[in-house]
Structures are given as C-alpha cells and as structure tokens.
Amino acid sequence: MVSHAYRTHRSLARITAFVTLLLLVVGSLSAGAADRPFYVYYNESDRLYRVRTDNGQIELVVKSAHAYLRGSRAGKYLVCWSDSHPGGGRETGTVHRFAMDGSLQATKGSISSVYEFSTKGDSIYFVAKPPKPSETLAIYRMPSGYTKPERDGNYQDSLPPIADGIDKRFTNFEFIDGKIFYTALRNGSEHWIACKSENGTGNVTWICKGAFSNSYKQWIVETSDFIYMLVNTDPTETQYSTSCMVLYKVPRKGGKAVALNAKKPLDVNAVYSGRWADDVYVYNNGIKDAISRQDGIRGWNFDNAVGYALDLAGRRIKISDDGVIEMARIGANQYVYCDGYGDVYTCTIKGGKVSEKKKRKGASEIFYVRNLKSGGKRKSTLMAGYKGTYLLNADMTIKKLIGVEWETVFLFDDMDGYLYTNAGDKNRLYYLSSNGKARALTQAKPKAVLYVEPVK
Questions:
Q1: What is the CB neighbour count within 10 angstroms for residue 108?
Q2: Nearest 10 degrees: Cα torsion 373, 378, 384, 389
C-alpha cells in the first residue's frame, strides 16, 4: 500500500493510498519469455474467487467469504482473516480455513477472537486469550487440518501454548531459523523481545528490553550471520514521540544481542515515517504527524523533515535536507529514493557516507519506491507518481513508458509482474506483465487481494 505523506507548500500536496496514481518502473521490461502464470485469490462481494494471470480465467472458490481481508497458505488449506468489526475499532478477528479442493465451502472450525495470525508449513500460528482467565495472551500452534472439537471457536482450549505473557498491544511475531521471535512481558511487567523454538519446546531466550511495535512495517532484516531488529525501548509511551528506537544485532548461531545505537536512539515518529531499504533503514528527523485539512486523512508533514539512513553498523547517514519518503537498493551500495517533494535521486551509500548523489530528470511527484524480487533477488523497482510510467535505464536515464492509471498496487515476491486496481476502469483488478502488457482480471473492484501462488 502507498505511504501517507504530503507537503503543504509545494505541488506534492497530498499522498494517500486512495487517489489516482501512476507507476514508474526501474529495471527492465523485456519482451522475453512469458511470465509464469499465477493464481490470484481475491474477495469480491464477499465471495472468494481465484483468477489466472495468464488467461483471466475466473473460478469461484468459496460462496460465502464474509469479510476476508488477508490470507496465507498452510499445508492443503488457505487460511484467511476476517475483521470482527468492519469499519474500524477492532482488536480481534476470525481466522477461517478451507481446503484447496474446489469444494466451495469453508472448512468447519474457524478460530475466533484472534489478535494476530501467520502460517508456516502445515501449521497455523495465532495469538489469543488462554482458556484460564489471564491479563496476557498466548501464541498457539495448530495443524492446518486440526479437527478436535472447539468451544465457540476457541481452539486454544485443546492446544498447549508455545509462548505466553503476550501484551495485546504488541502481538507481532516473526519466524527465523526455526525460532519464533515475539514481544513478551518478563516478570509480568517489563516488555522484552524473546525467542523460542517455533514448535514450543525448550526455554525462552530473552534478547533485549523493548517491543516490536504493532504495525505492518518490517522491523527485522537478516544477513548470513546476524539478525538486525529495530526495537521500541519505551513501548508504553503513546502520547509523545520519544527517542527510544534502538537497532540490535543478534548472532544467528546464538549469543548476546548488541545495541548499535544505544547512546543515540532514534525518534519514534522519525522511524515510523521510514522503512528498510534492504541494508539501511531510512527515516526522517523533524517530521510531524499531521492530518490533511482536505479530508482528515492522517499522514506525515515533510515540511521540516531531514532524511537519514541508519546502516547495519549503527551509523546515522544524512541523505536529504528535504526528507526521504521511500528508498530502494538497486545495486551494490546503490540506491534510488524520492524526497519530500517527490523528486527522484540516486546515490551511493558506503562506509557511512553518501556520494555520487544525483537528481534524475524526467520524473517528478514520485512517492512510492519498492523492489519486485524473485528468489530473493531484485528484478525491478516500482516507483509511484502522479505524472506517468517510466523506465530507469542502466545508465540512470529515465524513459517514459505507457501510462498505467491505478489506485492501489499489490506486490508479491516471485511474481514476474504486479497487480493493480485500474482507476480508469471502475477499479477492476489488472495484471501488468513483465513485457508491459496489461490484462483485466476481475469484473469489479475487489474488496481485498488475499494470496497468490504459481499455477502448477
């Protein structure tokens, strides 16, 4: 989804995920081999469909899909989340599962009152209240085909928790190297990052004091030897933006976590306005949380923002006096970014310094920079803007391509092209292939795109 951002005194007046946008493509749109066909699972009119990207063939998968908003596969089942309180204000949702056998019916036994969920292999992991009264939550692991009777959707009654002491405000968790990383209350009061075997065996390892903030941002990146995680060391402060975001380095084979910027923690708003660009985290000092006067949408005011990057050595590197909305790595030590005015720049970041910084002509009012990856490697980089679709050539010149009018874009790793809702065609879902050809996939605007997988 597109980041919220706007600047009040320049042409980049407002950026949200709900306006007509265009794409800039960084990389190569070739006329080579045809894209691999994918199935796209989506919710339309509370029915679950799947459509092929190569021929547009649509199949009805589940007749009643409730308010399915996101999904993931576990074994032979597709697992979907529905919001318990459509329209906002939810704390929990319901997790549904159905066999990928064309039965047109959801599998009996949804999991209710779930705070967060994920899948891995043949298992469903979810955060919920334990059977006995408790002030905290627990993480449970359930085989995808689990059929034991449950009480009103409370499968945790018959499942042992794999981790407990979870504060409902911090329910994010990640899987790395056979372990689950999460936030828990240590001694019942202090928030700590912890990890444990993903099957629940063994003891808890307490990594560092703090929490993973609840959001859809990525807080962890990995290298071959280390895990790097951005941790909020003052997670219960919600009124003021304090300097409490610390980058920790954790050996993958075990060992003590090291705080890389403990003496100079980053400001919360500065960090929340940014994201990882592979091996650097871009953020904005001086940024203000604000609400658009036009429509009340909350976003970031870049008027006084100064863009920085935090590298994996914990060094702060100044990038731009005008802030950085988004950045992506396009080569070894090479990056492309858009500043708070939507102008496009490329630069080199190496050894804690910026060099070869250059403004790129031919594209403006850009605010969305993301890589498409296959097998973990970059294939191309998408940049969204108001004025057109562009190609950044190998020599860093920009060539304008055909315009693709869109409202929302969906990126999935290993998919050769990308999905978008076409604002010029009733917001129907389209697929743009790697050779630049667009195909309509749906009859109407989808409520949600849940999951994609290759056609076998």
A1: 9
A2: -110
SS (H, E, C) 290-357: EECCCCCCEEEECCCCEEEEEECCCCEEEEECCCEEEEEEEECCEEEEEECCCCEEEEEEECCEEEEE
Contact 302, 287 (CB under 8 A): yes
Distance CA 111, CA 305 (A): 43
pLDDT beyond 80 at 38: yes
pTM recorded for the entire structure:
0.88
The three-point CA angle 82-84-85 to 5° equals: 120
Tokens matching residue 170: 């911090």
pLDDT tens digit string along 324-373?
Answer: 999 999 999 999 999 999 999 999 999 999 999 999 988 888 888 888 78
> Are the C-beta atoms of 410 and 418 separated by less than 8 Å?
yes
Residues 6+ apart with CB under 8 A from 284: 270, 273, 274, 300, 302, 305, 306, 307, 308, 323, 324, 340
Higher-scoring residue by pLDDT: 409, 149? 409
